[in-house]
Amino acid sequence: MIKGKKLRLNLVLGVLVGFFIYQFAICEGFAVLVAKHQGTGGLLEIPSKDIVVLRVLALILFGVIILAFNTKKFKKINLNKMSLYLVFSIIVSVIVAIECCVITMSFILRLYPNIDKIMMNNYFLAINSVFLLIFFGVGIFLSIFVMLVNRKVKYIKFITKEVKLIKDEGFGKTIEVKGKDEIAELCESINNMSVELRKKIDHEKNIENAKNELITNVSHDLRTPLTSVIGYVDLLKKNGFEDKKVFDDYISIIDERTKNLNRLINELFEYTKLNNNDIKLNYSNVEIGSLVEQLVGEYIPILNKDGLEVERCIENKDIFIDIDVEKIVRVLENLLINAKKYSVKNTMISVKLFSENDSVIISIGNKTQNICEEDLEKLFERFYKRDKSRNNQDSSGLGLSIVKRIMELHNGDITVGLKEDIIEFKLILPLR
């Protein structure tokens, strides 16, 4: 496609230059013939044979020029579209100027057949006529050239004006692209720059808003247990030491609140660390089935305490996969803890592992209540809590966000589905 386009450009340029040379050769040849036949009775008595020979030679020259412009050596010359347009404008302007001069001369010759004798006898008139003809030709050339180039100049002025508007009104505004030359490419580059800078500015704003939201949420989640701890410490200062039972109860509550604080701070630190651009994973090649089997086995007693049974369905064949073991264990732990918190008592938690196409899929499902499709879309958002209040101290709202981020770092994915009160999380890890 590009070669064909370049061939067409070379052909057009060759035709234009060839036609220009053709006209120039005709004019020069005609001048030579005039000089040769000056003494034979004037201009109109030039033999038709000489004129035919002149035209044939000019046509041969025209053909040679076209062939020259389509040779391999010429094709290697890098001519951009603007250069071609300027060359085209100059050639067209010259051709039109020459044609106008020739037509004018022909018209004068028809009006005054003996003009050549008059000029031979009047040197001053001859010189002035030549200068007038030159000025006339130059005037025609400039008029046509300015007319052709003025369109590009207007477009450049239009781009300049639009760039100033972008500067005043902000990035995101685009400029109308006209044509397919380098000016149009410049315009497209300005548009791309404007759009990309708008995206970057919006991204920076989103980051700033997310940071402010994070600070607000963290402040709230830290303040609630901290206020509780301070309150119970104040109560202990007043009368807690007099009653051993009250003292133990207060200490137990303070211990629970401080553990919640510690867990929240750890999860916040982990989430922040996972979102750093320079984070690196420590990959190991492990048999994923054994890892899942072992981890679920460790959690079975904890889940059984809450009346929850575990159903395991692990694919028998060995499936080796490159993962950061510590982080994938964190993912599985978060999902198992999540299942423990939100499962209906005396129900079953299912854990499945199988390979599908070029991926390993681990699914964890449990029966839950009071959840709808709208909740599913928000489960992976930071600090999202299903109870719509931020007073639940058993959850930081970061667990599933951490899970999603770890899966992204592994070039994997996590999905969630709901069917008849059974919520199922699917971890999808690529086989490397």
TrEMBL record:
It catalyses: ATP + protein L-histidine = ADP + protein N-phospho-L-histidine. Signal peptide: none annotated. Its EC number is 2.7.13.3. The chain crosses the membrane at residues 12-32, 52-71, 83-111, 123-149. It is found in: Cell membrane; Membrane. The keyword Phosphoprotein applies. It is an enzyme of class 2 (transferase). Its main location: membrane. Residues 150-202 form the HAMP domain. GO terms for cellular component: plasma membrane. InterPro entries: HAMP_dom, HATPase_C_sf, HATPase_dom, His_kinase_dom, HisK_dim/P_dom, HisK_dim/P_sf, HssS/ArlS-like, Sig_transdc_His_kin-like_C. It is a multi-pass membrane protein. CDD domains: HAMP (cd06225), HisKA (cd00082). It comes from the Bacteria. PROSITE patterns: HAMP, HIS_KIN. One of its GO terms (molecular function) is phosphorelay sensor kinase activity. It holds the Pfam family HATPase_c. The keyword Phosphoprotein applies. Keywords: ATP-binding, Cell membrane, Kinase, Membrane, Nucleotide-binding, Phosphoprotein, Transferase, Transmembrane, Transmembrane helix, Two-component regulatory system. Residues 217-432 form the Histidine kinase domain. This is histidine kinase. It comes from Clostridium collagenovorans DSM 3089.
